[in-house]
Structure prediction request, 352 residues.
Amino acid sequence: MSTGTARFKSGSQLSSRSKLIWKIVQTLVWFVGAAIFLSLIFFPTLGITLFWDILIPVAPALIVVAVGVWRNVCPLATTALLPRKLGLSQRKIMSSELQGILSLVSVICLYAIVPLRHFIFNVSGHATAYLLFGVATVAVTMGFFYEWKSAWCSSLCPVHPVEKLYGSNVMFALPNAHCQQCQKCVSPCPDSTANLSPLSYHKTVYHRISAMLIVGGLPGFIWGWFHVPDQVRGLSWESLADIYTMPLLCMAGTIICYGVVTLLFDDKYLRTIAGVFAASAVSCYYWYRIPALFGFGKFTGDGLLVDLSHVIPYWSIVTIIVLVALFFFWWIVFRKPNKASWIVRPAYAQRV
Ligand code: SF4
Prediction:
């Protein structure tokens, strides 16, 4: 049994000391998020470095290993859940159909927004700040209507499809530092389901399409994205076509591969196939992102954190990215599923 499920049984409540510690951590991380947001406005170069070249590159690895940490402290989640925590939410329970539609919209948003990094977000702190403000506005507005994380974190958040794909075999389950009692706001609950994957959702056609798009499409999308340079020639149809064509074509290619492979193999291998695609996607990300961070990128200057190209040999970077890829394949594909959920479900509420 996983250490997480052994330590925090389903329905267990956080002690007041644990609650206090998680509240402090959530508040600190929220202020870090606010500081990054303000630096995007007032010190754009610093803000871009902090957000796109430090926070975002760390996120996929954290999601693979311990997505529950992120789910408990994400500043946007803390913001989105404010209406619920302040007693201002109508606390509606979302229908399965709407959950499916929103999960599809979240995947489409992911694939629509990420290419725009090449066009504007990677080079404009103000644009990135507008993006975050817009996303936070939608998240909080949803929070006024829907119960707990169904409002944003488990529905419309564009990072959530990636969480479901990468977080299929986490290290351990953490206590739930947001939901005070489980109101069964989403089913299955992504936080509380052991070894969750996008394939765990098949209630509606929207769920099935979004699962196919994220599992099959993400490896190709990432590979294509890294073969497009940041655009600095202003808004035009040509530059928009440039940033979308390669990622979307490659995404279509890997979706076709995924479709063929799932037809060739028995259904009992579907989760393993999804794991191979997940490991390929996150490995591909770091295969290109780590060299770019340290001055060995395909496009000079794009995504650069610190230029070490004259300090360390290229083979050392190659060694790191090979080891990172081996780690992700071992962690996601070959490691035995440990039956740990991201987070332990709190006690069920008696709903009146
Ligand atoms: S634990 Fe319960 S209340 Fe919290 S997100 Fe999951 S289903 Fe919703």
Remarks:
- The pocket of iron/sulfur cluster is lined by residues 148-149, 154, 176, 179, 182-186, 189, 191-192, 345 (CB under 6 Å).
